[in-house]
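User: Fold this; tokens only.

Assistant: Input:
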Amino acid sequence: MPSRWEPMLHEVAGARRGRLLAFAEMLAGAHAAEDLVQDAVIATFSKRRGFDTAAQAESYVRRAIASRYVDSVRKSSAERARMERTAPPEAVPDPTEKVGGDAAIDAAMAALAPRERACVALRFLEDLSVRDTAHALGLSEGAVKRYVSDGLKRLNAALGTHEDPDSIETTRVVTMEGGNR
């Protein structure tokens, strides 16, 4: 007899996988998205948590994706700092990473701090409310508002747009060529 969590696992890992991959790709880039989603799903379901709905399970996986992304950036930053202190300058790898999609948007998103990037992605790409974003990332609503505001200011500066972050409820990111993303 299947356990109660198994159908949730199949729903999240199957039918909702595409959305989770898109979210992970906006955070970490195409090269790391698959691993990030897989690690988050394994971590979420390995403890057989009791979710009432697949939506709850998906929300938990999203939070795990965002947390793992922030942790990986923090870890790689610490490793880079150690290398810079100990290695000759020509041996230090280039820290810039490209993500898939439109180059201008991807470059602007990649330049954001990890939590800014996670908050902006959840708020505007996943269309979550401030409260839902705060819950998904384990932050206060005020922290989410601050990260979103700072992130949108940096995106506006990088993309040459002039949207007022305080007046935006939801928006779509528009490329410089005019295509929607």
